[in-house]
Amino acid sequence: FGEIVPQIRIPGCRIPLKPNSRERSRIRRYQNIVGGFLLGHFVVSNLIVFLLIQLFYILLYAFDTMAAGGSLPEGYDDVAQTFLTNSSSMIALNVLVYGTANVAAALMGLRSTRIPVSTLFRTKHFSAGLAVCYIFIGIGIQLLTGYAAYGITLLLEGVGITPYEADFDTLPELKSTVLSFLYSVLIAPVTEELLMRGFVLKNLSRVSQRFGIFMSAFLFGIWHENLSQFVLAFAGGVFFGYLAVKHDSLVPSIICHMTINLSAELFSICETYGWDTAYDILDYVYSFMAVAGIILLIVMFIRERLPKTVPAQTERGLRITLTSPLLLMVIACHVGAAIYYTVADL
């Protein structure tokens, strides 16, 4: 907060309840920096993916036209689209583009707001025992939000709305399975935590840690652009943000994020390859961990609390966010994408 109001560092300094125009402008500046880099991430990554897919189509058409002697069979467009959609090349494309975009946006954003990357990994008051507890809680949150998302989906379907659901089926080939596993379990958790709980949370917490936790979780939720993932990402994002604030590090949230993605990936692999026995064993282990995690979550709620917010912090949170155009634009982009996918999927 000293970057916004330098005199806060002076002993005995008191901040007025309502911020003046200069303070609001400085707070809005950091929120717009967050919105600007997330907006750039959205536009650039989607544009690159679109252009690369078009390039793949052009090359595929060119080679197949040459192989067919100058003419392609009827229905080739559908065959080509199915091939590209269900090939490991698309998974590799996502790994390359979105993983790189996450890291680039995070590092440039951190540098522009003068937050050293090294400070994000100086873990405090963390142990192996706490890591196990957090892993169980993460699995518990995953189970609870899965039921919550299912219930919301049923309610929406009751009024004629079928929410878009992302396809996470693992392709039945080794290369695709390995790429999907690497991205989901290793690359995505590390790069997403660096971006969301590193750059985004740190800058949105300059005024209030509580606001930063919830706002970064909301952005993380809509970033996934579908209902079921929003529910999990928002609830998980609040938990990840709490861990990042409590331990002043991304290490605990990365571990929990990896575990949640690992469980989903293992279920998908077992289902894809028809490993029924392994699926059943995994289901028993998962259920035990989830129930234990829910109990630990309740205990944590009783013993611990999210950072409190004083009235002066409330005046410097959501009200200023609603006047931060770049942050509002990135929210509109992801919500718009979610609506588009839902309509297009009807």
Describe the structure.
The protein is an all-alpha fold. Helices cover 75% and strands 0% of the residues. It is built from twelve helices and no strands. α3 packs parallel to α5, α5 packs antiparallel against α8 and α6 runs antiparallel to α7. The chain is globular and about 80 Å long. The N and C termini lie far apart (47 Å).
Distance between the termini: 47 Å
- The share of residues in helices is over 70%
Average predicted confidence as pLDDT = 88
Query: Structural class, from helix and strand content?
Result: mainly alpha
Number of distinct beta strands: 0
| Shape, principal axes of CA atoms | globular
Radius of gyration: 22 Å
| Count of helix runs | 12
SSE sequence, one letter per element: HHHHHHHHHHHH
Largest sheet: none
Strand content: under 5%
> Any low-confidence stretches, pLDDT <50, length ≥5?
none
Short recap of the structure:
The protein is mainly α and 346 residues long. Helices cover 75% and strands 0% of the residues. It has helices at 21-67, 76-85, 88-112, 128-158, 174-204, 209-223, 227-247, 251-273, 276-303, 311-314, 318-321, 325-344.
